[in-house]
Write a structure and sequence with these properties.
By secondary structure, the protein is mainly α. 75% of the residues lie in helices and 0% in strands.
């Protein structure tokens, strides 16, 4: 009886600590949502932390249309989606060639890809700017998509190659005996099995591309190509700033991240559990 009571008390304390930790982590987003309905006087007055006196839905209208958040949201969505798709296609094919096929330079090729993780982003800013200027692709989607893909592939290769190496080779050998080729084995056997790893790569690529600011603010000067991070920064006025619409824009930009992670978090957990089970 005493041991069971101790277990119950300890479990209650653990749950309380987890609830407190969850509230601390979630509250900044709650404050952001509440502040998106407030005026400047409420934000800088006595009502900083509480509910707004009147829910100003017009802040979202001002942000979406007046602040061009709708255009910036489309640009970020287009750039990020294309980055994820191309990164997954290239990385999956390259990872399959390195992890599942036998050739002499496979380890050297993997080392080449992993070296990309050691290159600082800031060191590539000036060379990329000069290259894009000479190629006449500044102020376009491609001047953002190309470097995002370049920095996303090394991490994707690190995850996908490690995951593919754990798949038993007998599964492919049985398919080859039945007459399947390399492409059939890749699309029908390997790809369905690495979906959790692909989801992990997609989320990491999404977060890095969606929240990136340095490339976007350097390579883009025309408003029609600005992403959400740069567009929200441009809403800050020189003499006066309406923080309600800006906070509304931040909420709009945060929602896709929360939604995508909610749908793919289970896939990430499956990939981690699978990798741990194989190693164990």
């Amino acid at each position: 009886m005493i041991n069971s009571k101790k277990i119950k008390i300890s479990s209650i304390l653990i749950y309380l600590l987890l609830i407190i930790y969850a509230i601390i982590q979630i509250y900044p987003f709650i404050w952001l949502v509440l502040s998106s309905f407030k005026t400047n006087s409420e934000l800088f007055g006595s009502n900083i932390m509480g509910f707004p006196d009147n829910f100003l839905w017009g802040n979202y209208k001002d942000a979406f249309f007046g602040g061009k958040v709708g255009l910036y949201l489309f640009n970020s969505t287009f750039v990020t989606t294309l980055t994820i798709v191309i990164t997954l296609i290239v990385s999956c094919m390259a990872a399959y060639a390195i992890a599942r096929l036998k050739w002499k330079l496979s380890k050297l090729a993997m080392t080449f890809f992993l070296l990309g993780m050691m290159i600082p982003i800031h060191a590539t800013l000036l060379p990329l700017f000069i290259a894009f200027r000479n190629a006449h692709i500044l102020n376009s989607y491609w001047c953002l998509i190309l470097p995002y893909i370049g920095f996303g592939i090394p991490i994707a290769m690190y995850i996908l190659v490690g995951f593919m190496q754990k798949i038993p080779k007998e599964m492919e050998e049985s398919a080859f005996i039945d007459g399947a080729g390399i492409f059939t084995s890749f699309y029908k056997i390997i790809m369905p099995m690495v979906k959790p790893a692909m989801a992990t790569v997609a989320i990491f690529t999404f977060l890095s591309a969606w929240n990136e600011l340095m490339f976007a603010i350097t390579f883009i000067s025309k408003s029609q190509f600005r992403t959400l991070t740069v567009g929200l920064q441009s809403m800050v006025g020189q003499y006066a700033t309406k923080w309600g619409p800006i906070n509304a824009g931040l909420v709009i930009g945060t929602i896709p991240t929360v939604v995508i992670y909610s749908f793919m978090s289970k896939e990430i957990q499956n990939s981690l559990f699978a990798a741990g089970a194989v190693k164990g």
